[in-house]
Each structure stands twice: as structure tokens, then as C-alpha cells.
Amino acid sequence: MNRILVIKHGALGDIVQATGPFAAIRQYHPGAEITALTTKPFAGLLADTPWFDRVEVDARAPWWRIGQQIELMRVLNRGFQRVYDLQTSRRSSGYHRLIWPHTEWSGIGAGCSHPDPDPDRDRRHTVDRQRGQLAAAGIANVPDPSLDWIADTAIAAPDRFALLVPGGSAHRPAKRWSHYSALAEALVAADIVPLVLGTAADQAAVDPILAAVPRAISLVGQTKFADIVTLARRAVLAVGNDTGPMHLAAVAGAPSLVLFSSASDPALCRPVGQRVAILQVPDLVALAPQTVTESAFQLLAA
What we know:
Layout: E1 3-7, H1 12-17, H2 19-28, E2 33-38, H3 40-47, E3 54-57, H4 66-76, E4 82-85, H5 90-94, E5 104-107, E6 114-115, H6 126-136, E7 161-165, H7 180-189, E8 193-196, H8 203-212, E9 217-218, H9 225-234, E10 237-241, H10 244-252, E11 256-260, H11 266-269, E12 276-280, H12 289-301
Parallel strand pairs: 1-2, 1-4, 2-3, 4-5, 5-6, 7-8, 7-10, 8-9, 10-11, 11-12
């Protein structure tokens, strides 16, 4: 049996946008044993997909942690016939040197057998960049990202609701807009219940919404990936910062408004889906609540 390795570490948005390549690799190698190498937060998610037979966790340990380096080498040297490095970072590209004898390798590292030849790859959206990489490896048909394989959960929600995602990476505060309470008030006036998503680390961004809008419902710390997908399938709208849950919402089908500052480029990483709108300003501090509210209701009415 052929063995195939797919490397994809994350973050969440990157994992979501790689679901098309994951499906294409499985279709191209229908009888192979396919292993995913990812980071701990996404191991369970990838284990639930229909595309992987095994999931291994990459601790991304520093070189001096010898035990973890030995474990990584054990994983990499399981006799893979081909490796698809969809992470294409300096770290993952270097894994090519840890396999002996060298195997077929799709990526950008020196010496790989199926390199992505596109000199403009870093200026392309993630979805297009990965399509080009797989085309260079002989995989011509790569579908759009999809979460159709995730079954609905039993999470409860009001009849008519919108998802708000006011949080994001703690070390990138420039990617956060801070006026969701004004949007939540407008939603309630339209008889739409705001459901606020986030982790415990997002609580400070959520509290002002709950204080200003008593009808808003906090689901902070209460949703798994499948819960967010289930809610997005039923939501009339999703509005949030450039962060992972908005990628889930957009691909799952919620009409999605995503707010960008100059800290990230939507041309490279915008969420993809059937109804996605982008609002970008250099500094989110200057983004007026009225502008967001008007854009949200325009998307709702479209």
C-alpha cells in the first residue's frame, strides 16, 4: 500500500482553506494510506475528515528537544511515497532533509521533486496558491473548500440569529474592531438575536456587547468547530474580524462580513464562501459602527 503524508499545521483559517486540497489529494491517491501531520489544536478536526487514515501531531519543538526531534523523524520516515507540504514554511520545508532516502515531495523546499514553479505564489490567495502547487504535482482538479462532511450538532439557537466574532489572536490587536455592541443593538432592533462566539481569551471583547445588549447571547468557550459550522448553516448573518471562526462561517454558508485592517491582506487570505463581503480600512479604530451596520444589512438583504 502506498503511503502519503500531508503537512498542514494551521491556523484554523488555513486548515479550512486547505480542505479542497485535502479532498483532491485523497481523490488522486484513492487506495493509499494518507497521514496528516498537524498541530495539536487541529488533530481532532482532521481525524474527523473523510480524507485521512492517520493523524500525527507535530509539536514544532526546538531543535534541542532531542526526544521530540526523534519522534518527528519517526513519523517522517514511515516509508511515504510522496509528501505534500501544504504548510510551505521554512520549518516544514526543512523536513525534507529529515527523510532518508528522499521521497517525492510537493512544496517549495530545496531539492523537492515536485516544486511549485510559480514566482508569484506569495502574492496569490491561499486557495489559488495551493491549486498551483498541486497542479505542479500532477493534481489538476482541486475543489473549493468545503465543510459538508461535518454533521450538524445539537447546539441550541434562537429562530433568527446572527453570529458575531469580536475576538481574534491576542498578539495581533490591530485585527480587532471594538464596536460590536453598536452592531448588536441594530440587530436586536431588527429582531435578530446576536450570538457571540469566542474563546475565554476573547472575554474582554465580548463583555461590552453583553453589557450593552441584554438580548445578546454569549457562547464564549461553549462551541467546538462542528458547533460553529452548525450555527453558521442556520445564521442569517455572520460578522467578525479576520479570524478562524469567520472562515468556518463563510465556508459553511453564512452570509459573512469580515473586517480587515492593514495587518492582513484579504487578497491573500480572505475567507471564501458563496456570500462573503470584505470591509478593509488601514486602522480598525477608524471604522465607524454605522459603516459596518450598513454593510451588514446590505449583505443580509442581498
